[in-house]
């Protein structure tokens, strides 16, 4: 017990005074009080060395981890060589050039040579690079002496926090560019606006695969919020390459319903049109990308035309559902019906126009959310002998 207390005291004194003596004489010269305190604390019982078994166990664990990583790298290299050999052979079988034979050509050839009627696509024959179906593994995290390479190793998620630090560095870079421009007297941003309308953030699983770590929903939300902060900066175009690493393109795919293709005006700005109805109201909208969230209805301001908050929420819900607020300009033309019916018609027309900017899976999500379904409800007629459509007259016994 006394030896343990002595070692703890020595450690605390060294941390407090930043003294790391190599011998007793040197320690006494640097700080005599520390030397006497350490000698008094350690004079009771000599310190015991760590058991050799613990050191051997640690060395064995480190060696086993390094062996697993080496075996995994060898497996990936061997499988990659076999894949390249098979890809070139498949290209020769199909009569194509092996040098320009892409993965899409491989998939098409496999479907042609091995037709399958299985409904589950994962059960069908495939030929892909080994990195697509072998889960990635981390490299060695510590040296042979047990010391970790990364300073964030003991956070439990070093790769995630390194990614957050790197993203925050990009944010500071954009802010410094803006500050330097303001110092030079340039108040209006000269850089072009970053066009990310036809793309979305990669999902949590993709981020985890990229950093070879499992992250929680909270960690993913913090990361995307930090990226959104970068997009809010006027000079976000300067770090476009870094932002695009975490974006995936959305390609509009035609489904059973005919989707209006994206059109371009004389300035090269993309837009799409939509039509919607509800009750007696009818709406035609034009959704323009690279906007700032401006909405006009029949030439009037959005806030002036729809004074009720519920009607405003109805109009903006498609943008909120897709996470594309403040990225489009909306021009609406409505007629007939009341404000409630007109807001519902604008919502349907806007959702139909936004289909041109998203992929098929997102269109399906919109359909499941009810954004693409016309509201069939209409005012129910009054019934004879009743006060209204459903309401009855007050019953009186006499």
From TrEMBL:
Positions of the region Disordered?
Answer: 368-398
Question: Which Gene Ontology BP terms does the record give?
Answer: translation
Q: Which residue spans traverse the membrane?
A: none
The annotated regions of Basic residues compositional bias extend over 379-398
The record's GO CC annotations read: mitochondrial inner membrane; mitochondrial small ribosomal subunit
Say where the protein is mainly found. mitochondrion
Q: Which Pfam families match?
A: Ribosomal_S9 (PF00380)
PROSITE patterns assigned = RIBOSOMAL_S9 (PS00360)
The UniProt keyword set, sorted, is: Mitochondrion, Ribonucleoprotein, Ribosomal protein, Transit peptide
Q: Which InterPro entries does the UniProt record give?
A: Ribosomal_Su5_D2-typ_SF (IPR020568), Ribosomal_uS9 (IPR000754), Ribosomal_uS9_bac/plastid (IPR023035), Ribosomal_uS9_CS (IPR020574), Ribsml_uS5_D2-typ_fold_subgr (IPR014721)
Q: Where in the cell is it found?
A: Mitochondrion
**Under the GO molecular function aspect, what terms does this record hold?**
RNA binding; structural constituent of ribosome
The similarity comment for this entry is: Belongs to the universal ribosomal protein uS9 family.
The entry's protein name is: Small ribosomal subunit protein uS9m
Taxonomic source organism: Patiria miniata
Give the source lineage, highest ranks first.
Answer: Eukaryota, Metazoa, Echinodermata, Eleutherozoa, Asterozoa
């Amino acid at each position: 017990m006394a030896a343990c207390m002595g070692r703890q005291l020595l450690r605390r004194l060294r941390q407090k005074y930043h003294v790391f003596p190599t011998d007793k004489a040197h320690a006494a010269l640097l700080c005599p009080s520390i030397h006497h305190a350490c000698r008094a604390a350690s004079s009771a019982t000599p310190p015991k060395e760590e058991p050799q078994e613990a050191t051997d166990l640690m060395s064995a664990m480190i060696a086993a981890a390094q062996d697993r990583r080496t075996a995994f790298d060898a497996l990936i290299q061997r499988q990659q060589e076999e894949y390249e050999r098979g890809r070139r052979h498949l290209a020769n079988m199909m009569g194509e050039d092996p040098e320009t034979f892409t993965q899409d050509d491989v998939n098409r050839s496999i479907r042609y040579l091995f037709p399958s009627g299985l409904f589950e696509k994962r059960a069908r024959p495939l030929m892909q690079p080994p990195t697509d179906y072998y889960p990635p593994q981390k490299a060695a995290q510590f040296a042979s002496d047990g010391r970790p390479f990364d300073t964030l190793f003991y956070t439990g998620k070093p790769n995630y926090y390194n990614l957050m630090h790197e993203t925050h560095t990009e944010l500071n870079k954009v802010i410094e560019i803006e500050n330097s421009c303001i110092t030079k007297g340039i108040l209006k941003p000269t850089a072009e606006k970053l066009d990310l309308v036809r793309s979305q953030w990669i999902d949590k699983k993709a981020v985890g695969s990229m950093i070879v770590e499992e992250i929680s929903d909270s960690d993913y939300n913090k990361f995307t919020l930090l990226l959104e902060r970068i997009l809010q900066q006027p000079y976000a175009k300067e770090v476009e390459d870094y932002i695009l690493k975490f974006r995936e393109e959305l390609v509009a795919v035609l489904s059973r319903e005919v989707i209006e293709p994206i059109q371009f005006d004389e300035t090269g700005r993309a837009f799409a049109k939509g039509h919607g109805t509800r009750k007696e109201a009818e709406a035609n909208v034009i959704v323009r990308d690279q906007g700032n969230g401006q909405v006009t209805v029949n030439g009037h301001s959005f806030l002036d035309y729809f004074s009720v908050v519920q009607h405003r929420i109805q109009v903006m819900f498609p943008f909120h559902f897709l996470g594309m607020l403040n990225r489009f300009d909306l021009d609406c033309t409505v007629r007939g019906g009341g404000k409630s019916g007109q807001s519902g018609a604008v919502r349907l027309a806007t959702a139909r126009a936004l289909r041109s900017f998203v992929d098929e899976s997102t269109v399906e999500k919109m359909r499941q959310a009810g954004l693409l379904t016309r509201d069939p409800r209409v005012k129910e007629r009054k019934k004879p002998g009743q006060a209204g459509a459903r309401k009855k007259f007050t019953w009186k016994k006499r």
